[in-house]
Specification:
400 residues, TIM Barrel, three-stranded parallel beta sheet, 9 strands
Amino acid sequence: MKFTYFVLISLFLLAGCASEEEKVNRKADRMHMNMLTVDTHCDTPMRLARSGFDLGIKNEKGCVDFPRMKEGGLDAEFFAIFIGQGPRDSMTFDLKHQTTLAIFDSIHRNVARYPEMAGLALTRDDAYKLKAEGKVVVFIGIENGYAIGKDLSRVKEYYDLGARYITLCHSANNDICDSSTDPLGPEYNGLSAFGEEVVKEMNRLGMIIDVSHLSDGAFYDVLRASKAPVIASHSSCRALCENPRNLNDDMLQALKKNGGVIQICLLSEYLKQPEPNPEFDRLEKELRQRMKALGPDATDDQKEQIWDEYQALKNKYEKLATVSDAVNHIQHVVDIVGIDHVGIGSDFDGGGELDDCRDVSQMRNITRELIRRGYNSEDIAKIWGKNSMRVLHEVQTLAE
């Protein structure tokens, strides 16, 4: 009799737990139907130039495509045109400009191929309209102001093609500003004179300035020079993970004063201090050396092979951060500067990946964790899109 009693109690408790989790899932589903969800950074456009990758079909490789956006409840994605650093001379600048234009074209063609499924957004209102039509929303950004070279007119050219932000630099200094990770250290101790002109031009056009990847000096220079709010499209908090790519608490306070938003990045090494992993480090270094040896003439197939090997290496050796780790960073921003200054920038297809959120189809897991921690629907809506769309609207309104 006692055995039967304990079995019944256990089943009742298990049913209660399952019911609570089902409630969380249903609540998350309702929220995703009623709010605009925005991811401010993925590097998927790098894949568009490779044969066989199509945003309109569910792909086996990569992290983002239109069907998986629908599956994960992600309405809007900023597809970042990443331009890798190279020599800073006029010939290379022209070549990189042509590469940038080609990637723009590949994004436009993918959107035009699926008019019933997706649409290009240029404003906040475009995004809400496309969501109401049941379509996924495509925004365009540019990662690395190196694409501009020294030609200020290219800022407007990229804006006219649909770019709504530019990340001013990447992993090395360029003609605009210092990077947070250039091994040679600062070149200007912040923005260059040309960089000041770029900031003014972006303000004039109504284009968001992205401060991810910038050195601390360049970050503060941008906030001093910009008359509009800025974003850090894919960064996290230095207080929780000591990494030069992350923002410290003083920088978060400065970002709040500017009216900007930090979009928490889902890259493990920006979310938690990596544990020693010498075997992974050795093999990753070998891969990087192989990629470097291929040089600028590497074919798409060679790049794809290296990328596949890198992904396999990560899957085997790397200990990924979790959704809970990412939400810890969201919570830290909320604690320091409030709910109006935080969002999500996955960096999918550029290294962003969590143990329990490996691609865009699993984005609801972030919402579920926020619900479990007691965030209400209005706060979750701000994190998922209202904050970033506010910045876009303010930047464009100030330009007008």
